[in-house]
Structure to design on (933 residues):
């Protein structure tokens, strides 16, 4: 994992809030105000999804506000919010919400960061009494936590287990990266997870002190977005939150200083997988945007980010000596702006990797971007804004909530997308190569940056020194670099001649899914389905049985890479660059996928670009292209990636566990460098792709659009109907080697103090149809996970979380697998596994004990289906999967609530007994290497 991605993972403990976004619709419906006690409130009615509302309690406080004796208590307090409030003593709050269909972690969640804490709810909103009670819960969190001493003591072990579960083999590198970002500020001394001594021993009064000091209205906001009566909700907020007394404490700002000089650090860790150089620049945050003038700077930064992504993407196809590189800008903790230059070093060419990287950055700093690059990203930027401004598609309440987050934490007011589009059009000509170069030069200063070099012991001796790296960057800046230029052939049309349209040979109404199915004369089935809501977009997905399992074993590796290589090669007479340039500013896109059991496509476009979408499908289908240079580069990168990735003990453990579960064969084996070298073949790549697609008969396409739209019908008949026909062999050649006897697999190679446990149960006996099995599996695993969480976490305090998951597939032969996973102290492994087995036995022998949990699960299943039915993507996926699994009636969804209602405690107990307890157990444990005898 590159450190640039790690920035976002370490920002908070919990869910990560999305990045800055302008308003999706008019802000006139937003009600925003401030109560006398200082609390800010936001209320925004929104009818999508129907019957649901999203709630937030925002606080501008986190671990930074902790005293020395309180390290970790901001996060501890977040845990306690679910363990007793004024109106919901004990665990009754979670029980109440689960009864309403809320699922912990998805509909009910929270996160704590350095300078923010956010509580999150997502619940049905048709019943005003539930909306009122939800506001009561938020008000309790804001000012009514009980913080009972017994509950505090009980939660200590849970939080310690969370701390343990987050330990990783590359912790030293991750900590070094965070310390570089924090640059000696208070952030470095206030890790959100805290100090284990404080977590385990701090008096409960310290928690109460933090709560009384910092959960005050002056640093809070409550936000509600959804299918609600906005005026009524506003009144209830004033009533419930206005009672909270004014806080006495004033928030202090703890800035992160910019770098004043170069700093260099090298960290070597056994847990690292690659060698990386990260160059970090700390910058001041840009100002919030309130008007057309301020928008220019924001737009310029947006264009610059797009240009950087495009430049480094284009460079990746020029056979660089390094393995991977990027330069990007992002916000960090709403406190700083970062410029991060990330280089994944090729261990075979470490010096030249860094030298070329330094040259490419210096090239950017000296010349910026050429007019073609700028014109391309401007065109894309404009098209995206125009499509958003003109779109009829509804915006989800969750997306609108992100805008309110920006308003409260970033002081970025909600701005309608139509205003943004107008501002863009008025400012775009004022931004040119000179202004963009100047902006990048303000971002990039190699003399005031942090250089972090990381790797693993086997390559440490190969890595360049601090003196060499800093010298190479200085030399690159001083030397006049060549200008960057990329030539391409420009085209006016994707295809020259339209294919001959097919005729419709049969039409059938699929009332269960509100769709029309037609059969075309080339052997293709097309299902037209009306969008759930008004839409100005067309989507096309398609599938056919087949995929990698139909290939000869000698073609398997070529099949794994065929889709990627053909996609990167362009299509027809068009190179990748020419095709991408033609599509710039257009919304049409399509992917061709070769999965293990089927082949398929997925594409979409605005209605205005619908013909381009269908032409693109036809061109890529009928004229796939293999660029020999692209093939060679993909193959070389794949080989280098294997050779240059440190095979950590944890990774080897996972590989060997896979062999134990699935056997060893040409499908399950590790893709080593020698396998790729020997079996990824240029002369087999196009034939494999053609086998997956080529003749189109047997394919089923799902088109989300108006089936009575004559233009759409014409496009389908012409471009889908024009696809070639012919003989197709979709017989699976592969059969699994599933282990059906018990086994124990233990290794003492872990890099951290925790033990990781996997309990896997698998069977080839699936005693019911696939959809019924999946429903029973969803219900049973949810019930079992809830029961295990209560026992292992809430009662025993020995784990932070337990994952129970299950899946089944009929192809190429039946297989069902259930997995139970958790992390814990090594000394607790045996008692926890015994408890899991004991709890399952109790469930089977006393089904009545799960009655309340099952009702919660069934409520959540019904709620999720009600939401799914409002999403076009759900219907497309449901139709594809139903037909693929030969469940052709398509009436499962219409019967779903009835089927859920019929699930009994005996059904769940029977499922757990037959599909888990009576199947072979593969017990796998990864222990710390320090315990190896």
């Amino acid at each position: 994992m590159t450190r640039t991605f790690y920035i976002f993972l370490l920002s908070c403990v919990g869910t990560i809030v999305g990045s800055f976004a302008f308003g999706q619709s008019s802000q006139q419906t937003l009600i925003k105000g401030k109560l006398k006690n200082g609390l800010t409130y936001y209320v925004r009615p929104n009818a999508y999804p129907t019957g649901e509302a999203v709630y937030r309690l925002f606080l501008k406080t986190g671990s930074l506000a902790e005293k020395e004796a309180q390290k970790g208590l901001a996060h501890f307090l977040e845990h306690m919010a679910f363990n007793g409030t004024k109106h919901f003593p004990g665990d009754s709050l979670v029980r109440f919400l689960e009864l309403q269909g809320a699922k912990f972690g998805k509909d009910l969640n929270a996160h704590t960061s350095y300078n923010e804490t956010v509580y999150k709810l997502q619940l049905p909103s048709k019943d005003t009494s539930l909306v009122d009670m939800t506001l009561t819960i938020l008000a309790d969190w804001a000012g009514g936590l009980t913080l009972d001493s017994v509950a505090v003591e009980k939660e200590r072990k849970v939080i310690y287990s969370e701390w343990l579960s987050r330990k990783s083999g590359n912790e030293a590198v991750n900590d070094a990266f965070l310390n570089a970002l924090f640059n000696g500020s208070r952030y470095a001394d206030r890790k959100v997870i805290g100090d284990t001594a404080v977590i385990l021993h701090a008096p409960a009064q310290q928690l109460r002190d933090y709560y009384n000091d910092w959960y005050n209205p002056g640093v809070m906001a409550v936000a509600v977005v959804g299918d609600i009566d906005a005026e009524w909700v506003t009144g209830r907020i004033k009533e419930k939150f206005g009672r909270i007394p004014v806080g006495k404490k004033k928030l202090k700002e703890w800035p992160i200083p910019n770098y004043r000089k170069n700093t260099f650090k090298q960290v070597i860790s056994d847990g690292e997988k690659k060698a990386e150089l990260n160059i970090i620049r700390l910058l001041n945050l840009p100002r919030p945007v309130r008007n057309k003038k301020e928008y220019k700077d924001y737009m310029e930064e947006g264009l610059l980010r797009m240009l950087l992504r495009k430049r480094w993407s284009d460079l990746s196809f020029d056979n660089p000596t390094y393995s991977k590189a990027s330069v990007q800008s992002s916000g960090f903790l709403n406190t700083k702006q970062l410029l991060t230059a990330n280089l994944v070093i090729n261990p075979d060419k470490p010096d030249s990797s860094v030298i070329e990287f330094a040259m490419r950055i210096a090239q950017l700093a000296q010349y910026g971007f050429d007019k073609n690059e700028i014109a391309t990203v401007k065109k894309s930027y404009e098209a995206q804004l125009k499509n958003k401004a003109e779109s009829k598609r509804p915006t989800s309440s969750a997306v609108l909530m992100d805008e309110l987050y920006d308003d409260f934490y970033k002081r970025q007011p909600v701005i309608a997308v139509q205003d943004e589009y107008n501002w863009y059009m008025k400012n775009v000509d004022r931004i040119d190569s000179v202004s963009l170069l100047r902006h990048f030069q303000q971002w990039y200063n190699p003399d005031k940056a942090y250089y972090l070099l990381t790797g693993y012991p086997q390559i440490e001796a190969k890595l360049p020194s601090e003196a060499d790296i800093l010298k190479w960057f200085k030399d690159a800046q001083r030397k006049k670099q060549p200008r960057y230029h990329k030539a391409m052939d420009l085209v006016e049309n994707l295809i020259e001649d339209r294919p001959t349209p097919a005729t419709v040979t049969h039409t059938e109404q699929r009332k269960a899914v509100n769709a029309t199915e037609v059969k075309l004369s080339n052997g293709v089935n097309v299902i037209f389905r009306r969008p759930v809501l008004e839409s100005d977009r067309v989507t096309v997905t398609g599938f056919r049985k087949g995929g990698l399992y139909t290939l000869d074993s000698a073609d398997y590796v070529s099949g794994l890479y065929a889709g990627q290589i053909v996609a990167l090669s362009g299509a027809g007479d068009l190179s990748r660059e020419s095709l991408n340039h033609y599509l710039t500013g257009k919304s049409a896109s399509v992917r061709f996928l070769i999965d293990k059991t089927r082949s398929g496509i997925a594409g979409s476009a605005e209605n205005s670009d619908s013909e381009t979408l269908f032409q693109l499908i036809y061109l890529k289908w009928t004229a796939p292209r293999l660029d020999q240079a692209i093939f060679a580069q993909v193959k070389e990168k794949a080989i280098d990636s294997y050779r240059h990735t440190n095979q950590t003990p944890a990774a080897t453990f996972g590989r060997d566990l896979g062999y134990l579960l699935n056997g060893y064969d040409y499908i399950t084996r590790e893709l080593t460098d020698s396998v790729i070298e020997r079996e990824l073949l240029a002369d087999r790549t196009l034939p494999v792709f053609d086998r997956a697609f080529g003749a189109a008969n047997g394919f089923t396409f799902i088109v989300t659009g108006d089936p009575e739209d004559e233009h759409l019908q014409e496009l389908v008949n012409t471009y889908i109907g024009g696809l070639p026909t012919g003989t197709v062999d979709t017989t699976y050649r592969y059969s699994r080697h599933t282990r059906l006897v018990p086994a124990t697999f233990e290794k003492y190679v872990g890099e951290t103090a925790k033990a990781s446990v996997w309990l896997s149960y698998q069977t080839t006996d699936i005693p019911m149809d696939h959809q019924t099995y999946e429903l029973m599996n969803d219900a049973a695993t949810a019930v079992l996970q809830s029961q295990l969480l209560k026992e292992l976490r809430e009662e025993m305090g020995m784990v932070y979380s337990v994952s129970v998951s299950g899946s089944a597939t009929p192809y190429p032969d039946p297989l069902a697998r259930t997995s139970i996973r958790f992390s814990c102290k090594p000394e607790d492994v045996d008692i926890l596994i015994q408890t899991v087995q004991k709890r399952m036995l109790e469930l089977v022998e006393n089904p009545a004990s799960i009655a309340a949990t099952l009702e919660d699960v069934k409520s959540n299943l019904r709620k999720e289906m009600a939401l799914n039915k409002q999403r076009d993507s759900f219907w497309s996926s449901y139709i594809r999967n139903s037909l693929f699994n030969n469940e052709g009636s398509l009436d499962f969804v219409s019967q779903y609530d009835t089927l859920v209602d019929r699930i009994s405690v005996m059904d769940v107990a029977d499922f757990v007994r037959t599909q888990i307890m009576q199947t072979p157990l593969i017990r796998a444990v990864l222990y710390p290497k320090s315990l190896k005898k």
Notes: Residues 263-394+410-478 form a domain with the Cytochrome Bc1 Complex; Chain A, domain 1 fold (CATH 3.30.830.10). Residues 64 and 114 are 5 Å apart (CA to CA). The first strand starts at residue 12 and ends at 13.
